[in-house]
Amino acid sequence: MSGPWWGKDVDPEAAATASEEALRTDPQRARVDLPPLTAADGRTIARVIAGRHGCFTPDWTSQRPDDPGTALIAVYAEQHAAVATVVNLLPNKARIEHLNTAGVAQRAPRPLEATLVFEVSPAAPAGVLVGAGFEVLGRDATGALVPFETTQSLFAVPAKLAVLGRRTGGRVASLPIPTPDLRARVSPFGIEPARGTALYLGFAASVAPAPRLSFGVLLAPRDTPSPVSAGGLFAQPGTEPPRLIWEGYDAGRFVALEVERDETRSFMQSGVVELEVPAGWRPGTPPGTDPGQPLYWVRAQLLDGAWPDPPVVRFVGPNVVPARSGRTVRDEIVDTPLALDRTVPRVLQLAQHPVIDGTLGVLIDEGGPEPVAWQAVADLSSAGPGDRVFLFDAAAGTLTFGDERSGHGKPLPEGFRHVRARYRAAAPAVSVAAGAINTPVGSAPFLTSVTNLEAASGGAEVETLDAALRRGPREIRARGRAVAVADYEVLALGAPGADIQRAHAVGGLHPRFAGRTVPGVVAVYVVGATRVDGHPPSPTEATLAAVSAHLTALAPRGAEVVAVAPVFHTVRVEASLELARTADVTETTYQVSAALDRWFDPVAGGERGEGWPFGGAIRYDALVRFLLRELAPAVTAVPRLLFVVDDLRSRPCQDVAIPRHDLLWPAPHELIPLPRRVP
């Protein structure tokens, strides 16, 4: 017998091919589109085992195909591949339970962010306190009500911005006052701000704006926001905001004002500025202003430093406060069973869910003089038998307490109506247009109106189950610490307050030092979750700051995390299509255009539907296969296809490379349906 005595069926390559063929022909064994728990490819398993024989069996030098050791490897690889395939095809329920045990749950919803502007009647005798949590209703596109609550307290004053000026010498030049329609573009410090340049704000009011003056600044959005850096041993040049001094004109002179809050970081981003004003503040006319118009004047003077790009303002005005969607539920008595079995975990259900992450507080009456606060944790396995903790699922609104049998977490004490909860129930993350948040629910004296100057944005619904199943294995691998580059990508998605859909991390890259490897630096490219007017989902500077700060807290000490907005390249497809005789030309052409948009989408595009790969080349053959697969049987052939990237046209049937770490954004395509062929 000339060949191997056990036959070709146990050859590693043949065994792997047979296993893959069985997967293709048996639908019940088809792989699910989830990250595999273990390798299930016979070739891979055989290759790994063969690579280890040098360490474990150094005396085995016979590597012939007919050697018995090779046969054992082939048999084991085939058997292991079959078992691994079954493991990877565990029912979703089992996988969900395993991930829940490891502390992985669906991410809580993210509230919409809005900027509200209040107006106070001129008859008000003083400023009006609008407390944090003041509720205002908005309406979405369907007319449904969406609740919003202010996130900070506001001293709303009966004042209006009457004069906006800039002083570069001894004279204050008047500037156009941006209007609430946000169409204006004003450079408050000029095109090339020099040291000593000052911005003047003159407020007209019937009474002194006191005790604090709060006004909002909305900057014109940049095409690409500047990178935001956090951590590191030394601050990189160009990351520090310029130094401003805020002063108020009182009793014939300017006096320094204490800055209670400056969310703008010296006009680096949009936000609210809150100043402590002098007691008994009086109107006046500083030198260089109109002497016949006494106003309450505030100025911001540039001491040193510079902006990466001079700020451009589209709105400045008083009584501005941020708000978030959702409604606070106070002192809810959570239903509890009368009889408790302390040997099994007890699950309680909140009346409203999903719940905004980080807003739940629970007090339990244990029979003492005061209720005791219990803490929510992501995993009970590390809790001791006396720890007052519970497992909280924000998406489902459930509280799971420990039991005496497992000893993980203190069991829920016996009692009646003794569990009270305070939380913020999430509102639908729908579109709320500018001016649609205008119905106050609470009351405050002399408030005449409230509105939002721009559409609410940044919201997200509860994470889908599929997304949680994809994220779970990577999050378990990260273990809550950003060490490997892949850890930064998955942990960035959980940054509080970040409007983020996707992240891509690169070690040793700093965008301010292109072409150089910078040790100790990790660049994280962030794809935003909000798309406005057909523009790509570029993140805001606030999102970049949130991602950078969040990852820095999880990264090794001394590591610098730079959050960066990716560069988007527009791509247009020019193609001719052969259609089936029964296909509707208009509808099929529309479907092809929609399929092309999905293919290039930065969040849902690419061959795996997980977003176009960062820096991924555009492959002609892959796109043609995608169109023929997705549009069959309506599209029978694609005789001609080429790409137009950033207005540069490629040759037909040619691949196009894009720069590393960049993404694509689809533009309107040019599709030509060819006449139907007559058989």
Task: Provide structural commentary.
The protein has 679 residues and is of the alpha+beta class. The chain folds into six domains: 8-90, no CATH class; 116-154 and 320-326 and 430-457, no CATH class; 158-221 and 241-318, Sandwich (Jelly Rolls), CATH 2.60.120; 332-425, no CATH class; 465-564, GMP Synthetase, Chain A, domain 3 (2-Layer Sandwich), CATH 3.30.300; 568-673, no CATH class. Helices cover 18% and strands 31% of the residues. The chain has ten helices and 34 strands. Strands 18-24-20-21-22-23-19 form a seven-stranded mixed β-sheet, with no helix packed on it. The chain has a six-stranded antiparallel β-sheet with strand order 25-3-4-17-1-26, with no helix packed on it. Helix 1 packs parallel to helix 4, helix 2 crosses helix 4 and helix 5 (92-101) crosses helix 6. The chain is globular. The protein starts with 11 loop residues before the first helix and ends in a 6-residue tail after the last strand. Mean pLDDT is 84; it is low at 1-32.
At a glance:
By secondary structure, the protein is an alpha+beta fold.
Outline the fold blueprint.
Elements: H1 12-25, H2 42-50, H3 53-56, H4 68-88, H5 92-101, E1 113-120, E2 128-130, E3 135-139, E4 145-150, E5 154-156, E6 159-167, E7 172-175, E8 198-205, E9 212-219, E10 228-231, E11 243-250, E12 253-256, E13 258-262, E14 271-276, E15 296-304, E16 313-318, E17 320-325, E18 327-333, E19 346-349, E20 361-364, E21 372-377, E22 389-393, E23 398-401, E24 419-425, E25 437-440, E26 447-452, H6 465-478, H7 485-492, E27 500-509, E28 517-528, H8 541-554, E29 560-564, E30 568-579, H9 585-600, H10 620-630, E31 635-645, E32 648-649, E33 663-666, E34 670-673
Parallel strand pairs: 21-22, 28-29, 30-33, 30-34
Antiparallel strand pairs: 1-17, 1-26, 2-5, 3-4, 3-25, 4-17, 6-7, 6-8, 8-15, 9-14, 9-16, 10-29, 11-12, 11-15, 13-14, 18-24, 19-23, 20-21, 20-24, 22-23, 27-28, 30-31, 31-32
Helix pairs in contact: 1-4, 2-4, 5-6, 6-7, 9-10
